[in-house]
Amino acid sequence: MSLILYRKLSRGPFMKLRAVLRNALQGLEGTLLSELKKIQLTEEEISALDQIFLLLQKALKADEELLGEYDYVAEGYDAEIDELRKIAYHSDEILMQYQQELVSKT
């Protein structure tokens, strides 16, 4: 997941996949789930789709929290991404803390 901030992948494909899986696995009162069974997907395959959906739910911000095209990984999902996001959006705070550390050492 760390590559997301480096490679500038847009959120679109991830959001679409999450929406499709949500509809297929949870929405429409199981209608789409029964259709998946009709095309002879095994319980194991359906379970794998559910695991992908759960991973996307955990890794991506909720739709209403999305602000930018490239800031879509949920906070707390990956410590490295959280640190990079902090540097990107709150560098002024980091510089102030560093300055205070230098002052306290001298």
Write a structural description:
With 106 residues, the protein is an all-alpha fold. The protein has one domain (3-105). It contains 6 helices and no strands. It has helices at 3-7, 12-25, 31-38, 43-59, 79-89, 91-105. The termini are far apart. The mean pLDDT is 78.
Give the helices and strands, then pairings:
Elements: H1 3-7, H2 12-25, H3 31-38, H4 43-59, H5 79-89, H6 91-105
Helix pairs in contact: 2-4
Quote the beta fraction.
under 5%
Main sheet attributes: strand count, strand direction, barrel closure: none
Average pLDDT works out at 78
Number of helices: 6
Terminal Cα separation, in Å?
A: 40 Å
Counting DSSP E segments of at least 2 residues, the number of strands comes to 0
List keywords for this structure.
mainly alpha, elongated, 106 residues
Gist of the model:
The protein has 106 residues and is mainly alpha-helical. The chain has helices at residues 3-7, 12-25, 31-38, 43-59, 79-89, 91-105. It contains six helices and no strands.
